[in-house]
Specification:
16 strands; about 525 residues; binds hexanoyl-coenzyme A; 8-stranded mixed sheet
Length: about 525
């Protein structure tokens, strides 16, 4: 009897499991494939180490009946949740299943996701969310709205404790956008979209016709809004990128990121660096050429590459250790800092600080972008974020002035006073309150006007100013620069500096909130 009973039990379980594997059913899976999209389970299979997935909540269903929901009960209720491994490291995952009611977000989905979030935070495990959803399940009314709140609060409590990565693989509409926006990184696959109000709502409210891609496709969020950090040409590429990004991060904020076996000699020195800075001070160059020559070969992963390209932020490795890079980009807007670059830089500094990634800053900046547009839109409070973030960060910080370090940008970009641990400069560094021409105009307007040959006198004064300030030696003289180094020495000097600082301990005063300008 007992055996017969347990045999029946097994059959029931197997039948339920088989049903759960089908999500919204075979027809819906075909439709998903026809749209060029993978199912939630196919995505998880690509993301996780083979055989590592441990599902939790596969059989949960809703118990509602409004608007015909009683005919639409699917095991799992439109999200697959659980734990798995990536390169042997534990991760928590949830993947929305568009085949079930368009992946719409429900009370049951929230219960499942929240459980994963709680377990992951308590055990110090990164959380990866794969998004493909039409937003709040309309039929559930306030239940699905409240459900979002449950997830948001957990996103916030996990923020800076465990890495959270959102991968957008289809529509991410309405309330669905805020959970990704609260996580550390948003990766968008080609064809995916994120928007608060969809094309239909926009049409009915404003009469404007706009496609989902024009409204919130990867191009929009990578270049204009800054909502997305990385994009990929396909779902599979987005999942590969997710794994790659994770490799630079620790499991949680109490650990250091893993060191990979270094494949690049510490003492490798690239002579090309000595000729990188153009002879003419206004000639641009691409700072990424310097980064590629200095850090471990092939290790650079740029974040937000198309947003505010006047600044570069990236993860890389140095002697196999994970580092965060902040750099001005002279190839774009002469590397001037503006509102968007300030947001990009300050956010990245805080991510590095949260996850124990040392920060290396490369400075070549003529200053903050002048003009009414920037002033009216609040470049003061945005620029202040960079200062705030550097001052607040307690991870090892090393800076290198490559060329211009003018005025506010010198101070803001990881100067010694920003609690920077080690400040280097190349011989091409120019550290001054402002550029030579405006400085001479402010200081010597009358003298130049009264000179027998004003133009000649102005040239003379400009040359004198350059002679005095356009070098790193005054800054080294007063201890603002610790060492002036030859460009080709940068790699070994950085490796040694970060080696010294590896055990750095620094604390901030206890407080409930630091009020970063926003
Ligand atoms: C219930 C939904 C749904 C939703 C889609 N579906 N979104 N069901 N609630 N929010 C269902 C559809 O009815 C359809 O079911 C199936 O999912 C597939 O959707 P399609 O429209 O056929 O797919 P597609 O053409 O690819 O369009 C996908 C889409 C579109 C762009 C996401 O469905 C859409 O615009 N949905 C609504 C988006 C939206 O405005 N969400 C905001 C909700 S308000 P059938 O059975 O017909 O195939 C919100 C506020 C929360 O989220 C705020 C919290 C802070």
């Amino acid at each position: 009897m007992g055996n017969a009973k347990s045999g029946e039990g097994l059959e029931t379980l197997r039948a339920l499991r088989a049903r759960a594997l089908l999500g919204g059913g075979e027809k819906r899976i075909e439709q998903q494939h026809a749209r060029g999209k993978l199912t939630a389970r196919e995505r998880l299979a690509l993301l996780l180490d083979e055989g590592s997935f441990q599902e939790v909540g596969a059989l949960a269903t809703h118990s509602l009946s409004d608007f015909g929901l009683d005919r639409q009960r699917y095991p799992g209720d439109g999200v697959v949740t659980g734990f798995g491994k990536i390169s042997g490291r534990r991760v928590a995952v949830f993947a929305q299943d568009f085949t079930v009611l368009g992946g719409s977000f429900s009370e049951v989905q929230a219960n499942k996701i929240c459980r994963i979030q709680d377990l992951a935070r308590e055990s110090g495990i990164p959380i990866i969310g794969l998004k493909d959803s039409g937003g709040a399940r309309i039929q559930e009314g306030v239940r699905s709205l409240a459900a979002y709140g449950e997830v948001f609060v957990r996103n916030v409590l996990a923020s800076g404790v465990v890495p959270q990565i959102s991968v957008i693989l289809g529509p991410c509409a309405g309330g669905a956008v805020y959970s990704p926006a609260l996580t550390d990184f948003v990766i968008m696959a080609a064809g995916s979209s994120m928007f608060l109000t969809g094309p239909d709502v926009i049409k009915s409210v404003t009469g404007e016709s706009v496609t989902a891609q024009d409204l919130g496709g990867p191009a929009v969020h990578m270049m204009r809004s800054g909502v997305a950090h990385l994009e990929a040409e396909s779902e599979a590429a987005a999942l590969r990128l997710t794994k790659h990004l994770l490799s630079y991060l620790p499991q949680n904020n109490s650990e250091d990121p893993p060191q990979v076996a270094p494949e690049d000699a510490v003492e490798r020195m690239d002579a090309a660096l000595d000729a990188l800075i153009p002879a003419s001070e206004n000639t641009p160059y691409d700072v990424r050429d310097a980064l590629a020559a200095i850090f471990d070969r092939g290790s650079l992963l740029e974040i937000h590459p198309q947003y505010a390209p006047n600044a570069v932020v990236a993860f890389a490795r140095l002697d196999g250790y994970s580092v965060g890079i902040v750099a001005n980009q002279p190839a774009y807007m002469a590397g001037a800092l503006d509102i968007d670059a300030s947001d990009k830089i300050s956010r990245f500094i805080r991510i590095c600080d949260a996850y124990n990634v040392p920060i290396v800053t490369f400075v070549d900046c003529p200053g903050f972008l002048p003009g009414t547009d920037q002033e009216y839109r609040g470049v003061i409070r945005h620029g202040a974020k960079i200062i705030y973030a550097y001052c607040e960060a307690t991870v090892p910080k090393v800076s290198i002035v490559l060329r211009k370090a003018m005025g506010g940008s010198y101070v803001a970009m990881s100067s010694r006073q920003m609690r920077t641990d080690m400040a280097f400069a190349w011989p091409t560094a120019q550290i001054a309150v402002m550029g030579a021409e405006p400085a001479v105009r402010v200081l010597y307007r009358d003298e130049v006007a009264q000179a027998a040959d004003p133009a000649a006198r102005e040239r003379e004064l400009i040359a004198e100013y350059r002679e005095k300030f356009f070098n790193p030696y005054r800054a080294a003289d007063v201890g603002q620069i610790d060492e002036v180094i030859e460009p080709h020495e940068t790699r070994p000097r950085l490796v040694r500096a970060l080696e010294i600082l590896r055990t750095k301990v620094q604390q901030n005063p206890p407080r409930k909130q630091g009020l970063i300008p926003t």
